[in-house]
């Protein structure tokens, strides 16, 4: 039928779309609307007296708020928004620890063991890191221009749309992790250079909204989905469960250098503090910060008690020490000016004296309107440069753009032969000139 290359889920979804189109065509809505307009016109021409007031039952139903109806916002990635895959094909991931075994495998293969062994080995070597925050913009631009994309550095790592990524800090091996909208986590050893360098795991049921390698132990990969926060510990080859929510977790960040405590945000507004050292999978504190929606949280790089929260049109700084359940939690500072929904907000990497936000109002004269089929853009600071950040673009040819904090465009990463899609999610290596872009089909591009 010409669709043999599609997965079972994609074929079922295509079938549903086709059947729905036939159903609406059978209703002949356009013909009915035309006849109704003709009748209305004739009736209005005959009416000479004042129209009677409408009855209460004839009035159209008022539009109800999705928030009051407790419906998820459009950008909350629930599989139920579309056709949910069959349970037999996508079984639910159980709670508790899960073995680090790839999808469709009863046990790890030799190639998987090689990948995990590489991850363990490079995590034992402490990365020295390059000097950060250099003010030499010209030298920085030269390093950007030297970065290229080759065909061998493109790989489909996860099955579906990339929602988050993380890159290992190793200076000898390029190891990238990607999370997609089906709850899959893919690991790719780019330096391997063979087909066996990428493997996919299923530690989650829903979109993997956020991922970070632990800042103190890169043998740990933390990933957050709508309902759970897990830690992939490669030394034990297991995905531990740290926190379980109510299918509305959106983002997390570390509150200390030891990565023992994290701040977690929820799609419906509140934030929670989770201590990894305590038993159980519940949070230590959950509070309302006055947001109708919270998409991202980010901790200040120097003063760890401060965190930045981004929501509908809100971007605020809070002090975690003064969060209380019993009273209104007011922000220390509010960054006003956005008129539409804010997708993300992050402190600059060295001093935290700047904040970069992405909003649907295109304030940088930058097309951020991705629509519902692409992951929303997130502008991220380059950890090697205090004043520059990277963000995806809707421009043609497809590209990833680097801006200075003044709004000046410094460089555009593009390759008409190798990059033909929008990279909504990007990640930069903390010390090397490496950029990874992820697209809506699960493909990663490494410059």
Automatic annotation (TrEMBL):
Bias kind Basic and acidic residues: ranges: 54-63
GO cellular component: nucleus
Keywords noted in UniProt: Repeat, WD repeat
Xref: Gene3D superfamilies: YVTN repeat-like/Quinoprotein amine dehydrogenase
GO molecular function (one): DNA binding
Biased composition (Basic residues): 43-53
Gene Ontology biological process: regulation of DNA damage checkpoint
UniProt key word Transcription regulation: no
The organism's place on the tree of life at top rank: Eukaryota
Similarity comment text for this entry: Belongs to the WD repeat DDB2/WDR76 family.
Function: Specifically binds 5-hydroxymethylcytosine (5hmC), suggesting that it acts as a specific reader of 5hmC.
Name of the protein in its database record: WD repeat-containing protein 76
């Amino acid at each position: 039928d010409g669709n043999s290359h599609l997965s079972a889920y994609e074929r079922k979804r295509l079938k549903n779309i086709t059947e729905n189109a036939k159903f609406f065509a059978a209703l002949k809505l356009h013909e009915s609307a035309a006849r109704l307009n003709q009748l209305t016109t004739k009736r209005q021409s005959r009416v000479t007296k004042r129209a009677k007031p409408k009855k209460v039952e004839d009035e159209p139903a008022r539009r109800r708020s999705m928030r009051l109806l407790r419906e998820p916002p459009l950008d909350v990635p629930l599989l139920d928004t579309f056709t949910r895959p069959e349970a037999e094909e996508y079984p639910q991931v159980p709670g508790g620890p899960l073995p680090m075994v790839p999808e469709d495998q009863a046990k790890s293969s030799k190639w998987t063991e090689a990948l995990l062994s590489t991850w363990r080995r490079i995590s034992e070597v402490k990365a020295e890191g390059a000097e950060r925050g250099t003010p030499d913009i010209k030298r920085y631009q030269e390093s950007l221009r030297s970065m290229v994309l080759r065909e061998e550095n493109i790989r489909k790592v996860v099955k579906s749309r990339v929602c988050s990524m993380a890159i290992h800090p190793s200076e000898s091996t390029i190891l990238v992790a990607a999370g997609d909208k089906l709850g899959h986590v893919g690991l790719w050893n780019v330096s391997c250079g063979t087909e066996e360098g990428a493997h996919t795991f299923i530690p989650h049921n829903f979109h993997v909204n956020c991922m970070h390698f632990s800042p103190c132990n890169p043998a740990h990969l933390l990933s957050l989905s709508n309902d759970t926060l897990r830690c992939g510990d490669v030394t034990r080859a297991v995905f531990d469960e740290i926190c379980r929510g109510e299918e509305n977790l959106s983002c997390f960040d570390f509150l200390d250098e030891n990565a023992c405590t994290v701040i977690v945000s929820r799609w419906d507004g509140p934030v929670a503090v989770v201590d990894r050292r305590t038993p159980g999978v519940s949070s230590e504190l959950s509070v309302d910060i006055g947001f109708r929606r919270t998409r991202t949280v980010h901790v200040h790089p120097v003063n760890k008690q401060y965190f930045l929260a981004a929501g509908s049109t809100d971007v605020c700084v809070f002090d975690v020490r003064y969060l209380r359940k019993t009273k209104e939690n007011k922000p220390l500072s509010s960054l006003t000016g956005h008129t539409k929904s804010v997708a993300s907000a992050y402190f600059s990497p060295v001093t935290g004296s700047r904040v970069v936000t992405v909003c649907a109002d295109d304030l940088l004269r930058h097309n951020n309107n991705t629509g519902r089929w692409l992951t929303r853009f997130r502008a991220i600071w380059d950890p090697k440069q205090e004043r520059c950040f990277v963000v995806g673009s809707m421009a043609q040819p497809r590209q990833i753009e680097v801006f200075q904090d003044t709004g000046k465009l410094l460089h555009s990463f593009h390759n008409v032969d190798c990059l033909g899609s929008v990279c909504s999610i990007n990640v930069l290596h903390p010390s090397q000139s490496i950029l990874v872009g992820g697209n809506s089909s699960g493909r990663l591009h490494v410059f």
